[in-house]
């Protein structure tokens, strides 16, 4: 990754009409409905954007959408990238750097995750308050990282406290179940074994997924306030583990998504 590549990507998007977005949003697996709430949308397909990776997962649609939500200019990633698709950490997080250079001041992330905390149920939402990186690498571990920000990034509070408080307050008011918890990020794409679920729980995680942490690390590198919500799509009880049905996971994500959209729209209005 070079600054020249970033400049070319951003120049292409500005020419497409991506005019000074204020808020960036990343939509996770099965979570595309928020895109329908965008007014006056301008769409750029990933395969047309210079230096952008391509989404290879069938339920990730692969487009960057610019427009308005709650009278704020937003840029939305409909379809994200994962290590399990064969991409490197810099590929996965390239769009975050692009959105920051376009002008965003806040980043909202969603993902689908498995509930390791058995007090949580599938269909619930979890506000991520901290994370555990089990992906075996870092998006900041490259030679010229210092050209883009500090090499050593503080991660004492990776998720923005003020935005988290607004989401919790909204959830209480709207009577939406919003747990707080720790998200563990693994490589995938295989699901975890019973022994791995036990390990993840012992480490202190409440949910497990295959994304988000690289983007959060880069957002912190860019000093970009970030908040993230997991839609819990399955219950990871090692003593009563059910065979996974990816279609069911997508359906649960889609059913729970309107609650997440309600929270995000309320937050966007107040930013």
UniProtKB/TrEMBL annotation:
Stored InterPro entries: Nucleoside_phosphorylase_d (IPR000845), Nucleoside_phosphorylase_sf (IPR035994), Pur_Nuc_Pase_Ino/Guo-sp (IPR011270), Purine_phosphorylase (IPR011268)
Alphabetical GO biological process terms: nucleoside metabolic process
Domain Nucleoside phosphorylase: 22-269
Enzyme class: transferase
EC numbers on record: 2.4.2.1
Keywords: Glycosyltransferase, Transferase
GO CC entries: cytoplasm
UniProt pathway: Purine metabolism; purine nucleoside salvage
GO MF annotation list: purine-nucleoside phosphorylase activity
Membrane spanning residue stretches: none
Keyword match Glycosyltransferase: yes
Family statement: Belongs to the PNP/MTAP phosphorylase family.
Job of this protein: The purine nucleoside phosphorylases catalyze the phosphorolytic breakdown of the N-glycosidic bond in the beta-(deoxy)ribonucleoside molecules, with the formation of the corresponding free purine bases and pentose-1-phosphate.
PANTHER family named among the record's database cross-references: METHYLTHIOADENOSINE/PURINE NUCLEOSIDE PHOSPHORYLASE, PURINE NUCLEOSIDE PHOSPHORYLASE-RELATED
Name of this chain's protein: Purine nucleoside phosphorylase
Organism: Aureicoccus marinus
Lineage summary: Bacteria, Pseudomonadati, Bacteroidota, Flavobacteriia, Flavobacteriales
């Amino acid at each position: 990754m070079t600054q020249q590549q970033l400049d070319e990507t951003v120049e292409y998007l500005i020419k497409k009409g991506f005019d000074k977005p204020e808020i960036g949003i990343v939509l996770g697996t099965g979570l595309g409905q928020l895109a329908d709430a965008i007014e006056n949308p301008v769409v750029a397909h990933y395969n047309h954007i210079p230096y952008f990776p391509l989404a290879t997962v069938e339920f990730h649609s692969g487009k960057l959408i610019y427009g308005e939500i709650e009278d704020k200019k937003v840029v939305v990633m409909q379809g994200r990238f994962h290590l399990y698709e064969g991409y490197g950490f810099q590929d996965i997080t390239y769009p975050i750097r692009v959105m920051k250079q376009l002008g965003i001041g806040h980043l909202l992330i969603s993902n689908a995750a498995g509930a390791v905390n058995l007090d949580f149920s599938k269909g619930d939402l979890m506000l991520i308050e901290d994370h555990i990186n089990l992906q075996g690498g870092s998006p900041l571990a490259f030679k010229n990282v210092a050209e883009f920000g500090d090499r050593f990034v503080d991660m004492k509070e990776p998720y923005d406290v003020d935005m988290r408080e607004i989401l919790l307050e909204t959830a209480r008011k709207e009577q939406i179940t919003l747990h707080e918890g720790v998200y563990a990020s693994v490589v995938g794409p295989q699901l975890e074994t019973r022994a791995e679920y036990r390990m993840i729980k012992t480490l202190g995680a409440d949910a497990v997924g295959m994304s988000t942490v690289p983007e959060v690390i880069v957002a912190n590198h860019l000093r970009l306030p970030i908040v993230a919500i997991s839609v819990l799509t399955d219950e990871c009880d090692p003593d009563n583990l059910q065979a996974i049905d990816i279609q069911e996971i997508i359906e649960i994500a889609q059913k729970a998504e309107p609650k997440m959209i309600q929270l995000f729209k309320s937050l966007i209005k107040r930013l």
